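Is this the right way to post structure tokens for a design question? Let me know if I should format differently. Anyway, here goes:
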């Protein structure tokens, strides 16, 4: 059962995370192409010919980016508390434990350091499968500590965002993470350490309004949904139809909020080239 559903005026708003990585032998793309999951993995989880980027999580991104999938994870055992004693359809601690058991993650972000194409790098990657990639206190703290590690070691920092926004079960404590992570990134900038922000599908809410858009370079995967509020909310608020492709990565790039769009199959080489230029 979703933790929130709005049914007034015929609107249904489920918040269950969509499955990211296919769990069977075969994957069917939105256009109907059938691909073996082994072929999909070998193609960086991009459907051949269609170039459709399947949603993936930190496990897959780390495999793609870290040399030989070798890395040292940071703050691996950090878990959310329940400072507000929050209860919706179930207590927040129960929801956390159920999510941990279901997706084998402690929270909605993992951070690690290692080498990418021979270059040292710190990567923090969000997992949408954990309560919609929502940003709570643990997410903000782990990202902040990853930035601290990047500053201490003078190592470039890569943030991979995929999120529905702030975590409502932590209310104001969740919103505070926007300011905390932004302040840490200001320190990273003062230390003259490069920060690259990769926005993937979807990147929305408070995440977009904070660290996701503060990169020295803001880049995105093709056709990613990027925005603050969702298209439906905006359309209902302004009472007008939205432009074609509104909030797609291509639309955002055209309007100057992104530096470039990168195909996941070229992500590692593009990032390595960019970091060598910055060095």
């Amino acid at each position: 059962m979703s933790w929130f559903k709005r049914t007034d005026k015929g609107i249904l708003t489920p918040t269950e995370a969509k499955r990211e990585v296919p769990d069977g032998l075969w994957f069917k793309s939105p256009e109907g192409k059938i691909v073996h999951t082994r072929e999909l993995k070998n193609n960086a989880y991009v459907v051949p010919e269609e170039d459709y980027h399947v949603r993936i999580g930190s496990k897959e991104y780390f495999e793609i980016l870290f040399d030989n999938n070798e890395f040292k994870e940071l703050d691996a055992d950090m878990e959310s508390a329940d400072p507000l004693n929050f209860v919706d359809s179930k207590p927040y601690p129960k929801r956390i434990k159920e999510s941990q058991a279901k997706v084998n993650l402690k929270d909605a972000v993992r951070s690690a350091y290692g080498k990418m194409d021979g270059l040292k790098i710190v990567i923090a990657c969000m997992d949408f499968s954990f309560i919609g990639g929502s940003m709570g206190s643990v997410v903000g703290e782990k990202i902040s500590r990853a930035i601290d590690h990047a500053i201490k070691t003078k190592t470039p920092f890569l943030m991979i965002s995929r999120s529905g926004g702030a975590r409502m079960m932590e209310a104001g404590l969740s919103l505070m993470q926007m300011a905390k992570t932004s302040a840490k990134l200001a320190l990273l900038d003062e230390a003259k350490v490069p920060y690259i922000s990769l926005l993937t599908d979807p990147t929305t809410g408070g995440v977009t309004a904070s660290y996701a858009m503060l990169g020295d370079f803001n880049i995105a995967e093709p056709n990613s949904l990027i925005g603050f509020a969702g298209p439906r909310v905006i359309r209902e608020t302004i009472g007008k139809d939205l432009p074609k492709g509104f909030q797609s990565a291509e639309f955002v790039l055209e309007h100057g909020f992104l530096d470039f769009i990168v195909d996941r199959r070229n992500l590692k080489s593009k990032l390595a080239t960019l970091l060598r230029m910055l060095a």
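Format looks fine. Someone answered above. Worth noting: The chain has nine helices and eleven strands. Residues 171-190 form the longest helix (20 residues).
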